Amino acid sequence: MTIKLFTMGGTIDKDYFDALSEYQVVESILAEEIERVGVPLALDSESVCKKDSLEITDADRIKLRDCIAGCAQQRILVSHGTDTLVDTARFLASDKAMSDRRIVLFGAMRPLRFKDTDGLFNAAFALGALNTCDSGVYIAMSGQLFTPDQVQKNRDAGRFEQC
Known about the structure:
It is a single chain. The protein is of the alpha/beta class. The protein has one domain (2-162): L-asparaginase, N-terminal domain (Rossmann fold). It is 26% helix and 30% strand. The protein is built from four helices and ten strands, in the order βββαβαβαβαββββ. The protein has a six-stranded mixed beta sheet with strand order 4-1-5-6-7-8, with helices on both faces. It starts with a strand and ends with a strand.
C-alpha cells in the first residue's frame, strides 16, 4: 500500500542559511527522512506549494483539495505550516468528497533540518494515525490526534491542544 504525502511548506520545510538571512521554505526532505529511519511504507511525495503557512491562500487550499481528489491513494498525509494548519484541515473536512479518505495533516514548530525538531516525531505519529483512524480529516500534533473542529494552536505554549 502506498501513502500519498502532499507538502505545503511551513516551518517543517524551512532552513536558515547564514547570520544575515531569514528562514526560508526550501525543498522538502520529509520523504527522505522517513525512509532514512527505516519506516517500511511506500511513500509517494508531491509538493503542492512551498509557502509559509501565513501565506497560504484559499487558492492553495483548493489546489491541495484537487490534488487529493485526483490521487489514487486513500491514505493521505499533508505536511503544512502550523499557523494555518487548522484552517486547511477545516477546509478539507467541509468537502464531502474528502470523507471517504483518511487524511492526516501535521507540521512542526521547529524545522526538520534542525536537531531538536518535532517534525519527524509528528510525521511518524501521523503515519501511525493513518493506520488506526477511520476515514476523515485529522491533525496529528503534540503527540495527539485531533479533529479539525476541536483543536487550536497555543502559540505561547508551542503546542496544539483541544479547544
